[in-house]
Amino acid sequence: MASTATVCVIIAAKDAARTIGRAVASALRDAHVAEVVVVDDGSADRTSEAALGADDASGRLRILRLDNNQGPSYARNHAIAHSNAPLIAILDADDFFLAGRFDRLLVEDDWDFVADNIVFVEARDADSLEPEVPDFEAKPYFLDAASFIAGNISRRGAARGEIGFLKPVMRRAFLDIKGLRYDESLRLGEDYDLYARALIKGARYKVVHGCGYGAVVRADSLSGRHATADLKNLCEADRAMLALPTVKGPAQAALRRHERHIRARYELRRFLDVKARNGLAAAGLHALSHPFALPAILGGVGADKLDGLKKRMKPADRPLPRYLLEARAVQK
After folding, report:
1. Structural domain boundaries enclosing 253
2. Backbone angles phi and psi of 161, in degrees to 5
3. Cis before residue 319, ω within 30 degrees of 0?
4. Beta bridge partners of 211
5. How many domains are contained in the chain?
6. What is the chain's mean pLDDT, rounded?
7. Kind and range of the H or E element at 323?
8. DSSP annotation of 292
9. Where is pLDDT greater, at 129 or 173?
10. Which residues contact 255 (CB under 8 A, 6 or more apart)?
């Protein structure tokens, strides 16, 4: 491979036979990619075979199979342990890289993490030609821990746009020196947790506005599903960061806000679980026996009702494609 091939692309895949071929092909077509490591995380379909079907015979594709589903954090750590390239890029099995992504991202060398813009496309459009994306002004900037954490607090009624969705290229050396890997207890927010811990440990996290990552929005996406326990584990991850002696000032304040936000979602989900299992009366008793959770439960139920009313009163529009980061197109 050319001397510019410095990137390991990691794809954790579970039952992704329909989509993984495009993901693999989009990675292999880039000359900066030295290796593509697919971890088939206990799939019940032909995910591994579909990935192999996209091989370009360059010797860069490796398939690692796990007998039982372990979750994305374990799968990604497994791939990191079985790869060597100095730069690591995560690609979800539903998604794809746009042509020339790494040409644009790797121009400068002043970062430990570097991320670009994301275009969200409808699943029904995902198999068509590559989306036409404007040339955006790069306008690079660096994230700090406080702004990153605060940027991962979602807002009701707004399109999902948390900056934890960014898919940065990461320096393996930084991860190794700082002892960073994905938290394998997490199946929700594992990216947010890794990036937040990296920033707390001094990572230079650069963001540019040029678009190189295509994210496919699917109703049945695994990333769109999570259990109540997943929210609890994410709360605990925030609390673990809050316990670090180096977390102070704005970063500490942002972490407290994020932890309260996730805890409120957890308490609402726990209330709804009790209601689904045992009925409204049991759920009411549960709420009364957890008075500290009442504001989150009442606020969440009220917001859900309001959201449902808005959807019934206003026809659904089609906001996609859209971009994660607001950006200005280059004037030609």
Report:
1. 228-313
2. -150, 25
3. no
4. 117
5. 2
6. 88
7. strand 322-323
8. G
9. 173
10. 149, 196, 238, 241, 242, 247
For the whole model, what pTM was predicted?
Answer: 0.88
Residue partners of 253: CB distance under 8 A and separation at least 6: 146
Of 67, 94, 121, the domain-final residue: 94
Q: What is the secondary structure of 113-145 as a DSSP string?
A: EEEEEEEEEEGGGTTSSPPP---B----EEE-H
Return the CATH number at 14.
3.90.550.10
The tokens describing 330, both together, are: 């280059």
* Segment 163-183 mean pLDDT: 96
Asked if pLDDT for residue 290 goes beyond 90, the answer is no
Query: What are 235's two structure tokens?
Result: 């709360």
Q: What angle do CA 136, 140, 143 make, to 5 degrees?
A: 130
Q: Which two tokens stand for residue 128?
A: 């068509």
With b meaning 16 or more CB within 10 Å and e meaning fewer, what string describes 156-195? eeeeebbbbbbbbbbbbebbeeeebbbbbbbbbbbbbbbb
Residue 54, SS3 per DSSP? coil
d(CA 176, CA 173): 5
Residue type, 241: M
Using alpha carbons, select from 321, 330, 302 the residue that is nearest to residue 118. Answer: 321
Q: 179: which 2 tokens?
A: 């002892």
Instruction: Please give the pLDDT value at position 313.
Output: 52
* Structure tokens, 166: 């960014």
176's tokens = 């190794």
CA-based R_g, the chain, Å: 21
Cβ neighbours, 10 Å, residue 72: 26
| Distance (Å, whole) CA 179 – CA 236 | 19
H or E stretch covering 44: none
Q: Estimate the share of the chain in helix, then strand, then coil, as percent rounded to the nearest 5.
A: 40, 20, 40
Residue written as tokens 């004037």? 331
pLDDT beyond 60 at 179: yes
Rounded to an integer, what distance in angstroms lies between the CA atom of residue 73 and that of residue 77?
6
Name the domain boundary from 94, 126, 149: 94
Report d(CA 57, CA 36) in Å as an integer: 12
Average pLDDT over residues 46-60: 97
